[in-house]
């Protein structure tokens, strides 16, 4: 992948930085202007508008600066032009001095702010980790099909309000009869760390069987095959999930959280840890976990799940702990070895539209 590497002076660094900051600045201005439509209610409670304006101002000027640099270098001018145009558009909408729009309470919204924050933090943090302790050092940051997975990243983040809406209505309606006040009181009375561990164990039990069903039921596999079509593992690879799989599995996984009735702090901690682990186990990271790999799902464990080598197919369904795979006979963790091949045995379309319609084709 040497042709994909970032090298100082070839315009690739300045071009992509300009384009990324330009688009994100434009989206951030939209969040300021139309907060009811584009921001997440829970996140609005903790924002410091003054600090966000400083960050937005810095991002806009950096986008312009790097965009001009691409033209000075005479390379990657298209990316520089994209960054400059989106930044000028952001300035036209008010830039970092834009007035905050009227905030209305809405049940559905596009979480652009959640998308921007998660993308920025994940890209910086995990790209750094993957370059410091990579499993495959030769893999480029912009590896093949990164644009496809970035598209999934955006789509699935923007579905957050729909997922929450479905889950909040589905769990009480379908499982309200199963709630037990004594169990909920016991769980909520545990120390915070213990609550999080309980949530991880029982949520993982549900995820295990849902995940296994998506492998062993032929119709469901057609949706899940989209996720397994990734052939280069990194922090962005886990985002490749079919929309229908997201809308079905995530509400179901929230059922044990609803039944257990943890404290709000424990639920928030679990959601954050689960999100980090979901990204980390797909990452191009070669951390030697030693005996800990038998307790916690690691990149090595989950990479084997994505392998298309015969011994590893349909194994390692757990997301948080290998406990359930060990109990139900689906564990595959051969020493210190890692997979050599990733992807699906049968071909899957390589475009976003092709993958979205793939499960419905004969």
Describe the structure.
The chain is mostly helical and 362 residues long. It has two domains: 1-106, no CATH class; 160-360, no CATH class. The protein is 60% helix and 0% strand. The chain is built from 17 helices and no strands. The protein has helices at 12-33, 35-38, 41-44, 49-73, 77-92, 112-132, 146-158, 160-175, 181-188, 192-216, 218-228, 243-253, 255-260, 264-280, 299-305, 323-327, 352-357. The longest helix has 25 residues, at 49-73. The chain is globular. The mean pLDDT is 92.
| H-E string | HHHHHHHHHHHHHHHHH
* Domain count: 2
The helicity comes to 55-70%
Note poorly predicted spans.
none
Mean pLDDT: 92
Give a short overview.
By secondary structure, this protein is an all-alpha fold. The chain has helices at 12-33, 35-38, 41-44, 49-73, 77-92, 112-132, 146-158, 160-175, 181-188, 192-216, 218-228, 243-253, 255-260, 264-280, 299-305, 323-327, 352-357. The protein has two domains: 1-106, no CATH class; 160-360, no CATH class.
Task: Break the fold down into its secondary structure elements and pairings.
Blueprint: H1 12-33, H2 35-38, H3 41-44, H4 49-73, H5 77-92, H6 112-132, H7 146-158, H8 160-175, H9 181-188, H10 192-216, H11 218-228, H12 243-253, H13 255-260, H14 264-280, H15 299-305, H16 323-327, H17 352-357
Helix pairs in contact: 1-4, 1-5, 4-5, 6-7, 8-12, 10-11, 10-14
């Amino acid at each position: 992948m040497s042709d994909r590497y970032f090298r100082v002076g070839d315009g690739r660094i300045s071009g992509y930085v300009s384009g990324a900051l330009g688009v994100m600045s434009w989206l951030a201005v939209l969040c300021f202007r139309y907060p009811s439509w584009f921001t997440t209610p829970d996140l609005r409670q903790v924002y410091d508008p003054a600090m966000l304006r400083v960050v937005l101002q810095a991002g806009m000027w950096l986008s312009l600066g790097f965009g001009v640099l691409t033209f000075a270098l005479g390379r990657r001018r298209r990316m520089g032009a994209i960054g400059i145009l989106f930044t000028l558009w952001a300035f036209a909408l008010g830039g970092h001095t834009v007035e905050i729009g009227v905030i209305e309470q809405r049940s559905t919204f596009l979480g652009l702010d959640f998308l921007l924050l998660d993308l920025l933090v994940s890209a910086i943090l995990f790209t750094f980790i993957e370059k410091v302790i990579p499993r495959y050092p030769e893999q480029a940051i912009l590896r093949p099909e990164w644009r496809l997975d970035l598209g999934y990243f955006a789509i699935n983040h923007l579905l957050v309000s729909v997922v929450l809406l479905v889950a909040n209505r589905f769990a009480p309606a379908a499982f309200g009869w199963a709630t037990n006040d004594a169990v909920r009181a016991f769980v909520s009375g545990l120390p915070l760390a213990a609550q999080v561990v309980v949530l991880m164990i029982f949520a993982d039990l549900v995820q295990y069987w849902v995940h296994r069903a998506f492998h062993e039921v032929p119709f469901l596999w057609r949706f899940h095959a989209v996720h397994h079509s990734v052939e280069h593992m990194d922090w962005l690879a886990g985002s490749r999930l079919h929309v229908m799989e997201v809308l079905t599995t995530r509400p179901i996984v929230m059922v044990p959280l609803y039944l257990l009735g943890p404290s709000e702090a424990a639920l928030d901690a679990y959601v954050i840890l689960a999100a980090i682990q979901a990204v980390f186990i797909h990452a191009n990271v070669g951390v030697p976990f030693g005996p800990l790999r038998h307790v916690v799902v690691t990149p090595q464990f989950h990479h084997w799940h994505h392998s298309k080598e015969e011994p590893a197919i349909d194994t390692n369904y757990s997301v948080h702990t290998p406990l359930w795979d060990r109990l139900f006979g689906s564990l595959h963790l051969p020493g210190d070895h890692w997979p050599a091949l990733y992807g699906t045995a049968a071909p899957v379309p390589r475009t976003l539209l092709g993958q979205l319609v793939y499960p419905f084709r004969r």
